[in-house]
Every structure is written in C-alpha cells, then in structure tokens.
Amino acid sequence: MPTVASDARLSAHVDRIEQEHPPVPLDSVDYTVHRPELLAERYGHVLDYLARVELEVDRNVLELTAMLPDASAVDRRFYSEVWQPQEIHHGLILDKLQTVIGRPPAVTDTTTVSPKIRILGALAHLSPVHDVVRMLYYLTGMSTERSAVLAYNRLHDGVAQLGETAVAQTVIAPIRRQEPGHYAFYRLSATALDAQLSPWQRWLIARLRRISFAPVGANNDLQRADFGAVLVALGVEDDLDHFVTEISRVENDLLWAQRRGLPVPTYVMDAMREAIELHRAG
C-alpha cells in the first residue's frame, strides 16, 4: 500500500495537473492549413495514429477498472478525472485536423476489454498481485507518455517547417504541453511503489514486462506496422537508440539496474525494430 507521504505527494501532483492543465478547449484551435495535401502526405498517417490512441483512452479506462479492482483513490482520480478528459480532447482535436486536410476520421475501439485483462484483474484481487499489476500500469504509462512527448516534439517541428504555424501553435503545442505531467505521475507512482515491493514481485514484474511490452496503441501486427510508419515519418528510425533510451530510462533503472552495461531493455528496442520492419514489409 502507498505510504501517507507518497500518497499526499501524488495527490498534490494530480491537483496541480488538473488546475494548471485543464483539457484543451476545442474552440481554441485554429485549423487554418495552407497546404492540406502536403500536410496529409507528410504527417497524415501520424495524425491518424495519434488521434486513435488518444481517443481510445475510453477503452483504457475500462481496462484499468478491470485490471485494478482495488485502485487507490489517487490512481482512480488521475485516470478518470484528469488524464481521460485531457486525452479525449487531444484525440478530438487531432481527428478534426485530419478531416480538415481531407483524411477520414480515425477508426477506434473504445469498448473492447480483452480476456487477458479480465483474467489479470481477477488475479489482482490478491493484494501482492495487485501491486504487480499496478507497477505494470505505471511502467506502461511512463513509456507511453514519454513516447508521446518525443513524437509531439518532432511533429511540432515538422509541421512548423512546412509553414503550418496555426497547426503547430494551436494544435500540437497545447497537446504536448500536457503530456509531461502524465509522465511525472507515473514516474512518481512507480518510484514510490518500487520501494515497497518484495524480491519475488520485482522478479515477476520484470518477466511479465519482458513478454508483454508493446508500443503504444500497437496490439496486433497491423497496428505495429502502423506504429513503425509513424517512427519513420517522424525520423525516429534514424535516432532509434536515443528514442528507446528516453522512453525506457526509468524502467531500466527500476527493473534492470543490477545488469550493468545494459543501456536499454532489449525487449523495447526489439519491439521498435520489429514495428519498422513490419512497416517496411507492408
């Protein structure tokens, strides 16, 4: 269970995110695009992927409710009252932008909770297992949010270089401004929980993470190939070592610190390379 001090710190952080970063107002966006065909050609697929991932947080909340039956009040408040509304607005804004440039809206799955998630939730009624599942949630959150920050940074710069100032300043910039607060929540949560875990829990978390890791929004080969296309479009392929190091830095420290000389978890790098290979093969 979280300590009183860590719980208070997390609660204060969630309060700060909510107060300082309310959902981006939908009417604050300027959808002026000077060259829609070029924007669609360069970044249309990226916009579609990001819009889908952001909109599918409705399903993510259903999954969290199923897999964390005894979630703390702070966790529940974060993912249902702060994170979900922010992300949904991100998705709505990105999805409208892609229709403005002539693309169809994102195809989303906002309701399906897999049997694996439900089984995990059933096991999580046991308190020691619940902490294992919580840590997997925090680790996934960290890699997801750090990936988002890096992706939005590159997308912002690329869109600005195309001369699409309105999109860069009123779509991408406000969205990317909200992602670091989410990352910080997961990092604080993971660090606090790690101090309370037993050796067997750490061992199990590391093994489960190794076999379950997947890039954000990539749940099958088609989506993995789509993610690979995003990496290529944003130029991440040419700087993959840095990208993987950034999204897995804290995870590497928590799970694999005893393995000196291992710069990143191999399963993270393997997943990114596989996504790019699937994209190239398609």
CATH secondary-structure class: Mainly Alpha
Residues in helix, % = over 70%
Low-confidence stretches: none
CATH domain topology: Ribonucleotide Reductase, subunit A
Structural class: mainly alpha
Overall geometry: globular
Q: At CATH's second level, what is the architecture?
A: Orthogonal Bundle
Sheet with the most strands? none
Number of spatially distinct domains: 1
Beta-strand percentage? under 5%
The helix-strand sequence is HHHHHHHHHHH
User: Count of helices?
Assistant: 11
Mean pLDDT: 95
The total beta strand count reads 0
Cα-based radius of gyration, to the nearest Å: 19 Å
Q: Oligomerization state of this entry?
A: single chain
The end-to-end span amounts to 46 Å
Characterization of this structure:
- The chain is mostly helical.
- It has one domain (about 5-280): Ribonucleotide Reductase, subunit A (Orthogonal Bundle), CATH 1.10.620.
- The protein has 11 helices and no strands.
- α3 (about 55-65) packs parallel to α5 (about 115-125) and α4 runs antiparallel to α7.
- This is GTP-binding protein LepA.
